[in-house]
Batch of 4 targets.
Target 1
Amino acid sequence: MAMNAREKWLAGGVGVLAALFVGNTMFSSIQSGFDAKKEQIDSLTKKKEEQSLQLTATRVARLKLNKLLPKSLPRLEESATQDYKKWLISLGDDAKLIDTTTVSTGDTSEKDGSFHSYRFKVTGIGTIENATQLLYGFYSKGYLHRITQFQMRPIQNTAEPDQMNISLDCEVLALGIAKDKQEPPKNDANKLAKSLDEYKQTILGRNIFAPTNTPPALEPRKSVEAKIGLRLEHTVEAKEVDPNQRVSFQLLGEVPKGLLIDKDTGKLSWSSNEEGQYKVDVQATDNGIPRKSSQQSLTINVKPLPPTPPAPIQFDVASQAMVTAFLVGSKGPEAWINSKTESKLYKLAKGDQLKLGGVTGVVKDVGANYVEMETEGRVWLIGMDETLADAYSRSKTD
């Protein structure tokens, strides 16, 4: 049966709808396939990018490890511990610690073998200055190490001022890629912003364990007298009010040639052959924390020696000896001289030698009331009851 026009239009519409439905279904199926492929491509691309990033990170990490390798301890445990303990001992010695000891306090290893960690403790006795130098030396070294604990405990009733028990705990790494034995790193680790002197200047001014240090007390100006050719006898006095501190002395600027000072006692040592004034600056420094100094200006006045005083008059036995008699003896005429001090009688004849006290001579002749003497070509006479000393003195002026 033939369809009428209305039925034809209706059938055509149904066909169009059926075609649209089939087309839409086919398009959705195709679109879903494209979307699945795109997601797969995106996933693979992301995975590739992640793998690329991981490779890059691995390369960067390897570069970093290679850069850190010279700072590592050797891979072998025996070499690692020996090398680091030896360096720790030298670190304590450089810091001038007293009774430095170094012990190992444990070690750990990473499961994947990437590194090995060692722990050590350094102990000793010193001041804040020694502690500052110890820390500076530690951070100057390029090892892969860090301080885990640092302690300072004051020691009471010691002969040395400001002494403390100092202990430093640290951890250091040995990388798994390190050599069995290798050279230690250099001292310049680039971790410090200032020099050792700058750190000391900052830290030592903050002594938290003792009162503020007082500088030695010196007179601001003083004059000292010395004599030409004689050794200078002067000791610079420095009063130190802080307990258990020592004072050392030194000369500042230009000093006269040969002038020295004992650094422990302050005693000056010098002699000058020229008269004049010489100015000297002396500095006294204590060993407190921080060290404090005082200065003194000395004027050394070098003067000539005083005139030599006359020699004291000594007693002359000739002043108590005199002629008491003129006789003729076995050798001819004789003069008898009695020395009261010696209780002795001298019997002189021509040609006899005489030495009595300060008088010497030869008898040239003996007269009836005189004796003729000769001393060094000079002829002089002695009369009765005249002392030898008076007659001898008179002959020097005649």
Note: The chain has a mean pLDDT of 83.
Target 2
Amino acid sequence: MRILFLAHHVWPHVGGVEKHVDRIAKELQRKGHVVRIISEKDPTSPRLRGTSIKYPKVKFLGLLYIWFWLFRNRNLIKNSDIIHVHDVFIWYLPLRFIYPNKKVYLTIHGGQGKWPIPFKDKLLVKIAAKLSNGTICVGDFIPKYFGIKANCVIYGGVDKIIKPKIQKEKLVIFLGRLEKDAGVYEFINKINTLRDKKYNNYKIEFVGDGSLRKLCEKYGVVHGFCDPTPFLEKASICFAGGYLSALEALEYGCELWTGADTPIKKDYWKMFPYDILPAQKSGASRLSEDDISVSIHPRKLRGILEVCYKKGDKLPTWKDISDIYESLYLHNN
């Protein structure tokens, strides 16, 4: 099949969505499919995969330019068997009516960052899901809070199944964007809980970047966006900013901590398909009853909706997730 992905940013622009799109595209290509990606042009990452759009960063004007660009380059759509949109369905909206018979699929990656959820955001998601032939949600919380039905719910994947080191260093890392919605404040509030006898000698480091970098630098070394593997190999504890960070931490045998300060973010973690135990019960740290921090331990993945994986107790690889994409295309053709 000839598959066209639309995404706001792509790898090597660093982010969970970017890694997801990159890994799925590569796995689908290994299966023999032709995958092309259209994204925003990023001057900080000149070697982007696929085709990029440079548009004016002006409200409405930028969107009009994207629509014009896609219409002018509509052969990319005409020559594709599958259009798969990652969050930016608004980009494709006019073309959906120009090519009503074209198979269009949607992956919704986010939505937990704003609380309460703006009405406009809910409406756009509902319209996108309604106009799509199939919808994948990254997290069970999305159907619940946005009032849509998903063909499949996934949580991302890992590059490979490894055997983590048994001996870990006295290191706690924060892995993810250094932003409020990723749990930075919850992590900082917990740092004092590390100062008991068990965690007194632990180092604190941040693997990520964002607007709260200067705040984080007061508490530990900030490495910026970089390959997290060396840190995950050493760290005993990882505070994850999102699902991919959590899966990578589990992949490397880290004790996993998370945090939330809104109802949607709490469900974001409670609906993660692993047993979630309150940290104070698991002995991870001493926390108040109102604290949502958790340690997560793998259990058998539950079967989720129609075409999702049932892979036992191992973490899903990107090949597993690409199988879900491929199954969705085949079952809806």
Note: The CA atoms of residues 66 and 91 lie 7 Å apart.
Target 3
Amino acid sequence: MEKLIITAAISGAEVTKEMNPAVPYRIEEYVREAGLAYEAGASIIHLHVRWDDGTPTQDKERFRVVMEAIKAKYPEVIIQPSTGGAVGMSDDERLQPTELLPEMATLDCGTLNFGGDEVFMNTENTIKVFGERMIKNGIKPELEVFDKSMIDMALRLNKKGYIKSPMHFDFVMGVNGGISGELRDFVFLRGSIPSDATYTVAGVGRYEFPLAMAAIIDGGHVRVGMEDNVYISKGVLAKSNGELVEKVVRMAKELGREIATPDEARKILGLAPRK
């Protein structure tokens, strides 16, 4: 079985310090949380960025500063910027971090009702544009899917040349408006991707660790972090993103699964070796 790739989604665009004081806003906080996650065993830092007051942004220069600050201390880690941004952002705004030519970036494969009047828009044409941009810039997309229909969209656009094989999926499960985080639904998504594809599971809230366990057993990969869940156990706030990663590492060790280093993760995902 392949070694386990752990992704740490350290801030997201929606969680706040009121939910957990360790959520990073400032540059030094991003470096701290990325470092704690990496040192605990994460190979990939899934990155949203904020202004110092916590406002989410896709500003290219803010991404540049945060990414360079993390890389200065942790040059081995893979940084995966989000192109999801926040609800209401335009396609051009969301695509800004791809201009920095990261190794990976996320590509959301469908539209989702987040709740109330909030709609996370990803039209077919948006997905095509994002896919073409990533192919042009040599960026490996992590295909964010919130439901089975989004896998079908990715497969169709793969056949049309907008997404390259082998594909890497992220099953984001338990989000309002998307598929639930039940084991039944994990099995459904897992059985819907090509045999040469890899996948990560991101369980939201109470689904984070049960789905991590399922992925570890199945041979898939795991995403944890404060974007998805701010608790280490029921009612107990996590002290850091590193603490969330440490819990997954303990689970993997109990099940005999080794943890991938960033360079081993690059090999598994088909990324170019680090220079």
Note: The two ends are 27 Å apart (CA to CA).
Target 4
Amino acid sequence: MKKFWRITKKILVIASVAGCLTLFVITLTSAIQAQQELHCKSIVVQIDFETGLSFINEKEIEDRINYLSGESIIGRKITAIDFKTLENEIEKNPYVSNAEIFVDGSQSVHVSIQQKRPILRVLNNDGVGYYISEDCERLPLHPTFTPHLAVAVGNVETGLVHRDSVVQAHLFSLINEIRKDDFLNSYIDQIDVLANEKMDLLPKGSLHTIKLGRVDNQISDKLSKLKVFYKEGLNKLGWDKYRTINLKYSNQVVCEKRETTVTTDSVSSN
């Protein structure tokens, strides 16, 4: 009798487990079938406008998604939307850094866009313009939106030749050093690229020209020296006293007055 109950108990346990598994499979299958029947109810495009950039807008992205899908995705089965392909295609936009697409519990398709960030505008002697991004990429100028940035002008070649890539690398290093300092970042308006790869800086109002020389591993020291001179020199003598401020010499700032030339005392960046 005891043996009979042991066998019966085992059978009941096995039947119970089998029943649970069957119920689980049925529930999972029903959930998958229900998921496959879900349709997109709306598109929500989110762009990082808080950065101050407006290279793209929500309608442009929504229209692009619908175009790539062959029709409006609203009303389409969510399982029929190829999110990965859409992300890759949107990221081909020259102003898009990253695109992520996902669906929320309300069956809304969300599109999150991060824009590429320009840090310098370039306008060369041929009249060709573009931006240099924070990743040292070239971005085309936008037909309707122009961010407020310092501009580099002069001898920057149009093609991707060796000298051009060197100049772009130097401009990238220079503008990043300038951007590290809030005062210089707001004060420097223009970079003049000379024929010998030397560079001049022009501040707002073009009160004087800052002779920087070539961009090298001393660039941080040169800019620190400039700030010390502004603080200890021009604040006392007047910001329009000099025609040029030359930073090419070690421990000296050589200034040309509007009528003569003087050499300041050695300055320290401390």
Note: Helices lie at 2-36, 58-69, 83-90, 162-179, 182-187, 219-237.
